[in-house]
Design a protein that fits this description.
heterodimer, A: alpha+beta, Jelly Rolls, 4 domains, three-stranded mixed beta sheet, 24 strands, B: Rna Polymerase Sigma Factor, Chain: A
C-alpha cells in the first residue's frame, strides 16, 4: 500500500468510477485520520459544487492590515518591548511565537550553509603549510622554483638559472595541494598543465617533472588540461586506477568515500589501467569510464561531457542523477552533512542545472518544489524527509 | 520591472501587488485547500516571505506566474503533510476551471484549452458555465435569467466541469518542476 493518496481517486469516487482497489486505498488512507476525512469531505464538495469563495467577498483590507502588522509594525514593537511593560512583552512573545511557526525552516537557518569559494592549503616539500585564500596574494619559494598564489590560482615557475643536476633533485620534491570541503582551486603546473581542483580534493606533484614521465597523485575530483609532450606521458594515480595520457583534457572523479571512479574524456585520448584487474581501457572523446570499486567492474559509455565538467565553470548540471548522488555532490561544495529519514526514495532521479554561487536555501527550495522531498536544517546537517 | 522594486523594498509597489493579486491567489488556493481560512493564511504567508526574502529573489518568469506557482507549491506542501498528492494535476485544473477569466495569464496554455473545451459543451451547459465563471454570476441569477430551477443550474455546472476535466486530463501532461 502506497502511503500517499492521489487526489484523482477522490475525483473518481465522486463520479462513481472507482474500482475496488481504489476504494480500499481511499478507506485505508482515511481510517483513523480525522484531518484526512475532513480533507476528503471538503474536496468532494468542491468537486461537486465548485468554488464557494467569491472574489468580492475576500476581505483584502483586513488581510493587508494583518501582514502589515507582521512586516512593519512588529519589528518596531519588538524593539520597543525591551524596556516596556510586561504585558507588551507577553503580546510580543505571542506574536513572535506565531511568526516562528509561520516561517519556513529554510528562512531561519540556511544562512550558515554557504556556497564554497577558492581556498586551499599548500604543503611544501619541507612539510610547511600555507593557507591560500581568495583576495590574498602569496609568493613562496622552493629550490629553483617560484610559487605564486593569487588566491584563486597557483602557478609554478621554474628559475632558468638552475643547473641541470639541481633540476633532477627537484623531481623528487613533492608538493601537495589540499582543497577542503567548500573549496576549489586552480593550479598551473611546471609543464604548463592546468588543473581545476574541486572541493575535498588533494593533489600531489613534483615541483618539476622528470624527463621520462610526469606523475601526480589524486584523491577527489579534478579537471586536467595536459600540455602535450611527446614521449613524456602524464600519469594520474588514484586509488583504483592509473590514467596515462600524452596531451588531452579530461575530468577525473575519484573520491575515496564513493564506489565509483569516473573518468570523462573531452578531447585527445587516455589509457586507464585498472588496479584490480590489470585491464587497460582506452577512452575516446565524449566517453566516460566508470569503475565500480565495490564489485570490481568497469563500464565505458557515451555521455554529455559538458555535464561532467560544468563544475569548473561554476555550474552543476544534474542529468538523471539520484537524490543521493546529488546530495553528495552538493555537500562537498556547500560543506554540510546530510541524513535521510526512512521512506525517502534515495534513488529518485533528478535533472537540473544550478549555479555554484546559488544560495543554499534557493537550491533546497528548488528541490522541494518537486514535492518529492522536504529538508530540515540543523546547524550544518540537512535532514531529508 | 515591478519585482525589482520589491527588491529595493518599495512598500508602495508591494502594496499595489498585494491588492491586485491577493483575492485571486486566495481563490486559486481554494482549488487545493477548499477553505477560506487556510487559503488566506497561505497567501498571507507567501506575501510575507516575498517581502522578507525580496533581496534573495531571482525570478525569471513573469511576476504573475511566479505568484501563482509559488502559492500552488505552498498548497501542495500542505497537502503533502496530509499524505495527498496531485499526480495528474486534478486540483490544478479544477482550480483553473473554477477561477475567473482574470486568471488567464496564470497558465495561458491551459486556459486556452479550457475555453476550447467549453465551446464544445452542449449549448445550454456552455452558457451556464460562461455565466457562472466568466461573468461571475450567482446560481440564483443564472436560474432566473434562463428561467430554470437552481438545482438544474447546479447539476449542469457539475456535468460541465466533469466533461471539461476529462477532456483536459487527456490533453495535459504532468510536469515535474525543476
Amino acid at each position: 500500500m502506497k502511503n500517499k493518496l492521489d487526489v484523482g481517486i477522490i475525483w473518481k469516487k465522486i463520479h462513481r468510477q472507482t474500482n475496488d482497489l481504489e476504494e480500499k486505498e481511499l478507506a485505508s488512507w482515511m481510517k483513523n485520520h480525522p484531518e484526512r476525512q475532513e480533507f476528503y469531505k471538503k474536496t468532494s464538495s468542491y468537486f461537486e459544487t465548485g468554488s464557494q469563495i467569491e472574489i468580492k467577498d475576500i476581505d483584502v483590507s483586513s488581510a493587508k492590515k494583518k501582514i502589515y502588522f507582521q512586516l512593519f509594525i512588529l519589528p518596531k514593537l519588538r524593539f520597543f518591548a525591551r524596556g516596556a511593560a510586561v504585558f507588551i512583552g507577553i503580546a510580543v512573545i505571542a506574536f513572535l511565537f506565531n511568526e516562528i511557526q509561520t516561517k519556513t525552516i529554510s528562512e531561519k537557518f540556511v544562512k550558515r550553509i554557504e556556497p564554497g569559494s577558492s581556498k586551499a592549503t599548500l604543503i611544501l616539500s619541507d612539510g610547511s603549510r600555507h593557507t591560500l585564500e581568495e583576495a590574498s596574494n602569496k609568493k613562496l619559494k622552493e629550490k629553483g622554483t617560484i610559487i605564486i598564489s593569487s588566491g584563486k590560482q597557483l602557478n609554478y615557475e621554474a628559475l632558468s638559472s638552475e643547473k641541470s643536476e639541481d633540476l633532477r633533485q627537484l623531481t623528487k620534491r613533492y608538493n601537495t595541494l589540499n582543497i577542503p570541503r567548500g573549496g576549489e582551486f586552480f593550479l598551473s603546473l611546471s609543464d604548463g598543465t592546468k588543473v581545476w581542483l574541486n572541493a575535498e580534493t588533494r593533489l600531489s606533484y613534483p615541483i618539476q617533472f622528470e624527463e621520462k614521465e610526469r606523475k601526480v597523485e589524486l584523491i577527489g575530483e579534478a579537471y586536467f588540461e595536459v600540455t602535450p609532450h611527446n614521449d613524456r606521458p602524464f600519469r594520474i594515480v588514484t586509488n583504483g586506477q592509473v590514467i596515462e595520457v600524452l596531451g588531452t583534457s579530461f575530468n577525473v572523479n575519484a573520491y575515496p568515500d564513493e564506489d565509483l571512479i569516473s573518468t570523462t574524456l573531452v578531447e585527445g585520448s587516455v589509457k586507464i589501467k585498472v588496479d584490480e584487474t590489470g585491464q587497460d581501457i582506452l577512452l575516446e572523446p565524449g566517453f566516460q569510464c566508470r569503475i565500480d570499486k565495490s564489485n570490481k567492474t568497469s563500464a565505458v559509455s557515451k555521455v554529455n561531457v559538458l555535464n561532467f565538467i560544468a563544475w569548473k565553470d561554476g555550474d552543476y548540471v544534474f542529468d538523471n542523477e539520484t537524490l543521493e548522488e546529488m546530495m553528495s555532490t552538493l555537500s562537498r561544495w556547500y560543506d554540510f552533512t546530510y541524513s535521510f529519514e526512512n521512506n525517502i526514495p534515495r534513488q529518485l532521479r533528478f535533472d537540473g542545472k544550478l549555479k555554484r554561487t546559488d544560495k543554499f536555501e534557493e537550491i533546497l527550495t528548488i528541490i522541494e518544489n518537486t514535492n518529492e522531498v522536504k529538508f530540515k536544517i540543523e546547524e550544518k546537517n540537512v535532514i531529508i524527509y | 520591472m515591478t519585482l525589482n522594486k520589491i527588491k529595493k523594498n518599495n512598500q508602495d509597489v508591494f502594496e499595489a501587488l498585494f491588492e491586485q493579486y491577493y483575492p485571486h491567489l486566495v481563490k486559486f488556493a481554494e482549488g487545493y485547500l477548499h477553505d477560506l481560512q487556510s487559503c488566506e493564511d497561505i497567501v498571507q504567508s507567501f506575501f510575507i516571505s516575498l517581502w522578507t526574502n525580496s533581496d534573495k529573489l531571482s525570478i525569471t518568469s513573469s511576476p504573475k506566474s511566479y505568484f501563482f506557482t509559488s502559492v500552488k507549491n505552498l498548497c501542495l506542501n500542505k497537502l503533502r503533510d496530509l499524505k495527498v498528492q496531485d499526480k495528474h494535476q486534478v486540483l490544478y485544473i479544477e482550480s483553473l476551471i473554477n477561477s475567473d477569466a482574470e486568471n488567464e495569464v496564470v497558465d495561458p496554455e491551459i486556459f486556452r484549452m479550457i475555453r476550447n473545451a467549453v465551446d464544445e459543451l452542449p449549448p445550454q451547459m456552455a452558457e451556464i458555465f460562461q455565466k457562472r465563471y466568466y461573468e461571475g454570476k450567482q446560481l440564483k441569477e443564472i436560474a432566473a435569467e434562463l428561467n430554470i430551477v437552481e438545482g438544474t443550474v447546479k447539476t449542469q455546472l457539475f456535468r460541465a466541469r466533469s466533461t471539461l476535466r476529462d477532456k483536459l486530463q487527456k490533453s495535459t501532461k504532468i510536469i515535474l518542476v525543476f
